[in-house]
């Protein structure tokens, strides 16, 4: 079962970026997150999937 809310470190691992990049992207609105408890940030898995889909590049035709 895939988790719907990811910790910042987990989201960073999925996207292969730093934790600080995740915080910045949430602040910029590129990712959606929510604060839990006393300010612990969680990132919605759907927003990670959406970010990846929106930034996909077309397959390159490699001719040798």
From TrEMBL:
Listed InterPro entries: DNA-bd_dom_put_sf, HTH_17, SinI_DNA-bd
Cross-referenced Pfam families: HTH_17
Residues covered by the Helix-turn-helix domain: 5-55
One function term, GO molecular function aspect: DNA binding
Signal peptide: none
Domain of life: Bacteria
Bilayer-crossing regions: none
Protein name (database record): Helix-turn-helix domain-containing protein
Origin species: Nitrospira defluvii
Organism taxonomic ancestry: Bacteria, Pseudomonadati, Nitrospirota, Nitrospiria, Nitrospirales
